[in-house]
Amino acid sequence: MAQRAERAPSIDSQSAEGSAPKPALRKTSISDASKKKKSKKSSDEVMNKVYSNLLSSVFGQERELSQPELDELSEAFKLFDYDQDGYLNYKDLAECMRTMGYMPTEMELLEIIQQIKMRLGGLMDFDDFCELMGPRMMVETADMLGLKELKSSFLQFDTDGDGKISLDEMKEAVKNLLGEKLKKGELEEILKELDLNGDGTVDFDEFVMMLSVR
Q1: d(CA 145, CA 21)
Q2: Crossing angle, helix 22-59 and helix 147-157, to 10 degrees?
Q3: Among residues 185, 197, 194, which one has the least CA distance to residue 54?
Q4: Is the pLDDT confidence value at 77 over 90?
Q5: Which end of the chain, N or C, is surrounded by fewer C-beta atoms within 10 Å?
Q6: Which residues pair with 123 in a beta bridge?
Q7: Which tens digit of pLDDT belongs to each residue from 61-71?
């Protein structure tokens, strides 16, 4: 009795077997692209948060006076401290404010002078002067990006003053600005984005470029 010949696998069957792994490969590719997209989005979110907090700390109204601002106040205070006793008379305050470029209304001046008379006995020292003029100065400079402000901002990162922001300096500054540590790889991603010349640090020009494009 003749043996029945074994049936050869069909071309369709071979094709199906050969193409079976393809969906898995495609799935992996999509997964990788999705991870990269999420990583980029996360990096952008961190950068935006760092940027907004940086502006707030350097140019916003809820901040400490910078050294250049304190120097300006000190110069104005000394100019009108005629007897050099460390106190400014309330009678000279209006002229002092106008010299600094502030034009208070009569009503505003009356309120200020009344406070000085009642609380300070008609005289104010430099700390009182800063307390009075500081908020006005910060309102005026809020969100202003002049060269002086940019340099002051850069120095918050460049703590050793070598003109470049290293990875360690960036880590410390970002931690202070955000109040938290970044996730693994986020800091390196930020530095890579800012480091245009690829030297592993961020110089002043690259720092200004970051602020300019955001």
Answers
A1: 56
A2: 120
A3: 194
A4: yes
A5: N
A6: 89
A7: 556 777 778 89
Predicted TM-score of the model (pTM): 0.45
54-68 per-residue burial string, b: 16 or more CB within 10 A, e: under 16: bbeebbbeeeebbee
Q: How far apart are CA 203 and CA 166, in angstroms?
A: 9
Report d(CA 120, CA 128) in Å as an integer.
9
Task: Find where tokens 């010349």 sit.
Answer: 197
**CA–CA separation, 120 and 27 (whole Å):** 74
Confidence of residue 15 (pLDDT cuts 50, 70, 90): very low
| φ and ψ of 172, to 5 deg | -70, -40
Query: What gap in Å lies between CA 77 and CA 89, rounded to an integer?
Result: 10
**H-type alpha helices, 81-125:** 93-99, 106-120
Residue 158 has pLDDT above 70, yes or no: yes
204 contact partners, CB below 8 Å, separation of at least 6: 150, 151, 154, 163
Cα–Cα distance list, 183 to 36, 39, 86 (Å): 15, 11, 50
Written as one letter, the residue type at 150 is L
